[in-house]
Specification:
Layout: E1 2-6, H1 11-22, E2 26-31, E3 46-49, H2 55-62, E4 68-71, H3 78-83, H4 85-106, E5 110-116, H5 139-158, E6 161-167, E7 169-171, H6 189-198, E8 204-207, E9 219-220, E10 222-224, H7 225-242, E11 246-250, E12 256-257, H8 258-269, E13 275-278, H9 293-299, H10 308-319
Parallel strand pairs: 1-2, 1-4, 2-3, 4-5, 5-6, 6-11, 7-10, 8-13
Antiparallel strand pairs: 9-12
This protein binds uridine-diphosphate-N-acetylglucosamine.
Length: 325
């Protein structure tokens, strides 16, 4: 099947492209390389270097006749979205509307959309299932929720079938070592720990050790990016087969604390990984854990790589290349 992967040179997008290619699909990546990287492009895939805010480029590209779009292009730093909401509104909401309108004009009826657990906000109960109240705590989460709602209307009005995938914390790298792009200026825990282990960052700041969690540090649900990538393909197959849209959580259903991850990373990498305790980061809940039962039941989705060992070992396999000998 011919699939356009918008944002396909990014961290998650490159893994999704890899999975689609592995399953024999014809992939074109559409990316402006603002965060995406050339090193994440695969020779078997087509590539269009263009912006989602450029409707002409989108419609020229879609004239190529695609069966489906996987749309991952977005800004994702929740903290920055609170200080630069205009940037997030323009790109995440405005840009996605351009993608959807171009899809509509080109007659593309199937879209997989990267949503986020950030649509839920402060948890009212755990584990978080898809019926949890939607009350984003940051503007980033609001942009994702807004697009989910627009997708709902395009489904009703245009027969667009979508899969909204609410990611928890994506981590790890392709276990076969085929994705090598390290994120630039990461804000997330795992890549920061990897940079410290590789010696390109002096230390990890632990954002709060006084949370009501067993060791006082924040607990999150880390899902391996290859398990996420597989879910994209399964979700796409599902909406094509069932002719029905879908909204699902994608998580490991397991909580891991900052300290648990740090200690495992020290053990697996054999590096010291210095850390300092800093104050809490505003907007960080103590604990987030998913229920991914819906994805397991509807998609038959199984996680294969989301254990702590694989999350860290596959990432270290990429970051160790930078480590001093
Ligand atoms: C964040 C966003 C989420 C977004 C996701 C992907 C918030 C509340 N959530 O998730 O909406 O989809 O990123 O980009 O902003 N930590 C440290 N030191 C660090 C970095 C992180 O201790 O240098 C801790 C955090 O306090 C948290 C955990 O590590 O407990 C995970 O943080 P992070 O990787 O930033 O992800 P989230 O904040 O869960």
């Amino acid at each position: 099947m011919k699939v356009l992967v918008v944002g396909g040179a990014g961290y998650i997008g490159s893994h999704v492209s890899r999975e689609l290619l592995d399953r024999g699909h014809e992939v074109t990546v559409y990316d402006n390389l603002s965060f995406g990287q050339r090193v994440n492009l695969f020779p078997e895939a087509g590539f269009v270097e263009a912006d989602i805010l450029d409707p002409g480029a989108l419609s020229r590209c879609l004239a190529g006749g695609y069966r489906a779009i996987v749309h991952l292009a977005a800004f994702k730093a929740a903290g920055e979205s609170m200080t630069s909401p205009e940037k997030y509104a323009a790109n995440n909401i405005g840009g996605t509307i351009q993608v959807l309108n171009a899809a509509s004009a080109a007659g593309v009826k199937h879209v997989v959309f990267s949503s986020s657990a950030a649509v839920y906000g402060e948890p009212q109960y755990l584990p978080i299932d898809e019926d949890h109240p939607l009350n984003p705590e940051n503007f980033y989460g609001f942009t994702k929720l807004e697009i989910e709602r627009i997708l709902g209307w395009y489904d009703k009005l245009r027969g667009l079938r979508f899969a909204a995938l609410r990611y928890f914390n994506a981590a790890g790298y392709d276990p076969a070592g085929r994705v090598l792009g390290r994120e630039r200026n990461p804000a997330n825990l795992l890549p920061i720990i990897m940079e410290v282990a590789a010696g390109t960052r002096p230390s990890l700041r632990i954002f709060g050790d006084d949370y009501p969690t067993p060791d006082g540090t924040g607990v999150r649900d880390y899902i391996h990016v290859t398990d996420l990538a597989v879910a994209h393909v399964e979700a796409l197959e599902h909406i094509l087969r069932e002719d029905r849209s879908l909204t699902v959580n994608l998580g490991s259903e397991t909580g891991l604390s900052v300290k648990e991850i740090l200690e495992a990373a020290r053990r697996i990498t054999g590096q010291e990984i210095p850390s300092v305790t800093a104050g809490r980061r505003p907007g960080d809940p103590a604990k987030l854990v998913s229920s991914a039962e819906r994805a397991r039941k509807l998609l038959g989705w199984e996680r294969r790589h989301s254990d702590l060992e694989s999350l860290i070992a596959t990432a270290w396999n990429v970051y160790r290349r930078e480590a001093a000998p």
